[in-house]
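SAMPLE LOG
Freezer: B-3
Tube label: C17
Construct: single chain, 148 aa
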Amino acid sequence: MIIDKIENTYLYKTIHKRFGKAFEYLINSDFNIIENGTYPIDGEDVFAIVQEYNTKDKSIAKPEAHQKYIDIQYIHSGSELIGVNTLNNQPVVVSEPDNDIAFYKAETSFIKLEKEMFAIFFPHDLHMPGIQISNPEKVKKIVIKIKA
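STRUCTURE (predicted):
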């Protein structure tokens, strides 16, 4: 897992062969005018999901992980907490292999993501996004999915 500000993406472009395209999209796109939806960047290897939602109470969330894709989660506006942990034999609650997602029963520690921050979650990282800080807040987030 990596957590940083968008201005530091140059530090991470060489970690994975597809990170460069993902970060270029985040830096060069005007998310003030891009609507919610899924946008191809490099076919099925790299694509963006633009979404807006209200953060929720942690009691109704479950940690998740993905095996086929790495997530780069970028906050365009708003702020949220994300629960994090390392995947290490925690019990699966729900598995949806066709959607590349599994939910787990696991404890998490929380990190705060604010405007212009991003987090990278690899297949071994559990993450529980969209958690309210104190009250529900509207967030616009871009999730870049990168084939692992």
